[in-house]
Design brief:
about 650 residues; mainly alpha
Amino acid sequence: MTRFPSFTTTAIVVLLSGLFISSIHAAPNEEQRMQLRALKLDIRKTSNFLKQGLIAESVQLVRDIQSRMEKLGTAGDAEVTQELQNLAESLAVSHGHLELEGYTLKPLTASAMAAAPAMMANEPGLPGTPAPEAAPLPTTFPTANISFTKHVTPILIARCGNCHVTGSRGGFNANTFEALMRGPAAGTVIFPGDDIGSRLIETIESGDMPRGGGSVRPPELTALKTWIKEGAKYDGLDPKAPINQAGASANPAAMMQLEVSAATGNEQVSFGLDVAGVLANRCVSCHSGNNPPGGLGMDSFARFIRGGDSGAPFVPGKPEDSMVVRLIKATGNGRMPRNGPPLTGEQITKIETWIREGGKFDGDSPNDNSMQRTNQIALAKKATHEQLAAMRAESSKQMWDLGMPNVQSAKVDSPNFLAYGTMGEATLQEHVAEADKAADKVRTILKIPASAPLVKGKMTLYLFQKRYDYAEFGNMIERRDLPADWKGHYRYNVTDAYGSIQVPTEDEYDLNVLLGQIIASNHVASQGNGTVPEWFAEGVGRVVASRMSKKDPRVVAWDNQIESALGSMSKPDDFVMNRLSPEQASVVSYAFLKAIMGRGNSYDAMMNSLRNGANFDQAFQSAFNMTPSQLAAAWVASGAR
């Protein structure tokens, strides 16, 4: 008979185990290990970006990596800290290269980087006199709308702290706004509107103040002078409150809140085509990340219109009153962008016209798409088939070089496809010839007009001989782990259209069928001005594969998985709303599309609408008289037939 330890023995063991465990750091959990692996991959990616001359992309990724390292470093685990130290050493190469290029990055540390120490006072305080409470001292300042509480107060505390904030050196105490404006017995030191005649500015410019070896940096002096020229206004709650205490914090006066306003299509200037590219190329490298200058992030349209410390970036309809226009038209140190030449007259005029027309957004997603992505999508939609093919060729090469660096490979360019592969050129040409045959079958099955390209801008095919390379490409380019049973998949996002394929060995599965599936999915996804959802395009692609060969092992596997995939759903539209795993969603979409593609007239009407430019929701509703979710519910209720 099995003997169990007594309660007393068990309790002692548990207590001793608890004491031992509490005396050491816990090992990293699985989530932490996943984060460390992701950081390692992204550090490699920064190096690849630099090799390809993608400086802005490398800057953004380095900043993102540092932010994630900070968060992960707060875990306090010894093993995690050691791993972060190793990662910091790996990141040092890209970090140092970018600093040499003139980009400002956070100091490189291995874990959570503590805030920079408070700036030392210029002179030691009197015995028993506490130093003023540290305030965040900005490194950059807006050229207009200087705030006393956000901009001037930190300068006064950092540069004049022990002498004139907690002390009264020379009979002058500036501990409150009221005292600062009153000045010492010798007379007023600040005259609102007159920076030249203000004694405060004069003593700083002459070098007389601050004493003790410190100095006021040029951007700080410019901010002080601007604040005085703008009237030396107070934006706190109580002018009698000490400036180094919370009671003097800024009054949350209402600032203009901009909303996303959709373009009508009648505007002379397009944000996506004419403005987003300028902002992405000239502004985002600085105005991104967690702490952008002036609090103004420009990573996306939504973040841009949120504004920064000085309020909204523009006033719809009034470019002359808009901060962004004043900044790009300024001269000297106040001009934006600070790095590089000023914007051209044509660029400034387009930004002014865009604001005058209301500052409308004509992109796909103001929240999710980066500023650069918004511009890329706009350019792709406007481009001709030939122009987009040229753009995709460049993008495809960059992806291949990034995903398969230092891997011997071949390239083949045909009328339908641009192909890269980890095999010899002759073998790759054979695969492309097979893709051409598959494309002919797809045209027949989907009734694609002979005059229309399969995909505007051509498709790219990435073919891999080894599973490892196929999976690594998905990891590096798509930043996801591909399902173990996937042998290939499509990717369409307006700017890129490609198929990633693991070439079968022997009779493992039919490459022609897999190619047909991927070509069909890309074709469908490219219709409707890029509004077709992934579940629909994936489902159509799998139906095409089944019509090409019902006996293909992959098709047989899908048919066998339908019942279990349906059983995994809690709601009929789970596959529509992306609530299933990728493979479960694909199998259910396949079953659903088999049913609705059987309704020939309705499906054909929908595809014709998409090819004529209708968006997906409109085309679906018009063809089936219900939404995808409603049709999914009816389909499930009928027994999913």
